[in-house]
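Holo prediction. Input below; ligand is NAP.
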Amino acid sequence: MQVVNIGVLGLGTVGSGVVRLLKDHEHKISSITGRKLVVKTVVVHNLEKKRDIDLTGIKMTDDINELINDNEINIVVEVMGTVATAKKYIELLLRAGKHIITANKDLIATYGSELAELADQNKCDLFYEASVAGGIPILRTIVNSFAADRIIEVKGIVNGTTNYILTKMSQNNMSFTEALKSAQELGFAEPDPTNDIEGIDAAYKMIILTQFAFGINVALDDIEVKGINGIDLEDIKQAKGLGYNIKLLGIAKLVNDRISVAVGPVLVPETQPLSAVQNENNAVLVTGAAVGETMFYGPGAGELPTANSVLSDIIAVTKDIVLETTGNRFNDFSREGKQALPDEVKYPYYISLKVRDRPGQMLKITEVMTELNASFHLIIQSEYDDVNARVVMTTHEMSEQQIKEIIEGIDNLEEIEVIASYRILSE
Ligand SMILES: NC(=O)c1ccc[n+]([C@@H]2O[C@H](COP(=O)([O-])OP(=O)(O)OC[C@H]3O[C@@H](n4cnc5c(N)ncnc54)[C@H](OP(=O)(O)O)[C@@H]3O)[C@@H](O)[C@H]2O)c1
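Structure of the complex:
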């Protein structure tokens, strides 16, 4: 049987899983592809590090040139992370005619188009199924199974760390700090969790999902990004009392044929399937004009789930090599798209306030709302501390522009402080 040689760049969580699965599933893979897939060389940073994996017959090096200059290597799997270094290496590898598979969402969200162009020029494949929602095969599903449908909305829980934190807060009454610590102890959060808890990791994944679902390129600056950093346990409890779970959602949707992409905490009704997605799991809900609502659920990270997505890319590239059809883009759908305007994206909102407990305060808040033509659905007042009350409101549907002005207006009032304002998802 002919051999396809693979180079692996990075042997951490995902890289180890890739080497392991290629070996464990060797026979099935060769019967599907008609080729024997062999990991020939692995590039790491630290050659001295002990590896808990069988590396018999694999060359270990810390020199990227061992991949670039090896004419026998057909495919390189980049699972080392970083943006600048990974970009530089992938460019060199593409120019050397290597097909690339990567799990690097930061890189693809930022430089995906540029790298896809370079892959085209070199007749190489560039696949990145594992970059969004780890083990859930969502990108190839959108490319293949939604090819003929018109996608209206893609929304979901695409960051396992924040979903774990929010689940622990909701189920175990933990504060944000306690839940983050627990996530770090269990390896669900990095020592520096900034990208996860500030919503940036989810935003990168929404950039890639938006490109696949709508064919539209958006940049990080085009996205309204709110994280869960410091989210108040009282808001989670209050939302629960109203029949909602707070989830960090990415939402990309067409509004009057313009695109709106946002990441932030959202009140999800308990009856909505995303509400039931617990712990570090991910789920993506794709709504098509023809098919309606579909949901894809599974592990968003982890050694073997992520490696499985990488392997599906390896098999896709190998089939392209066999059929001599390499050099086609992962996603061919591309069109011009304008950003939705702030006054056309509408949701009901949840607002919580710390209000000095004295007469006349509600009147001041009502005046701000009335001036901006917005109205409450309900108002609940409870004790905050000895001198302040906690006021929680849900509103009728209002535009992003309106909520921004309302929050500014309320924040300008004396003795009233906005704690949180979150979108509410409809049933
Ligand atoms: N972990 C997940 O569940 C998951 C899920 C989806 C996507 N991803 C993405 O997959 C990628 C890898 O993640 P990971 O969790 O596997 O990372 P990781 O455990 O930190 O492993 C990174 C690997 O890359 C190597 N490396 C780092 N810098 C290098 C350099 N300059 N030259 C050569 N090798 C270098 C490291 O070498 P040493 O071992 O010698 O230090 C290590 O083996 C990232 O882009 C991540 O966002 C991860």
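Residues 380 and 392 are 5 Å apart (CA to CA). That is the main takeaway for now.
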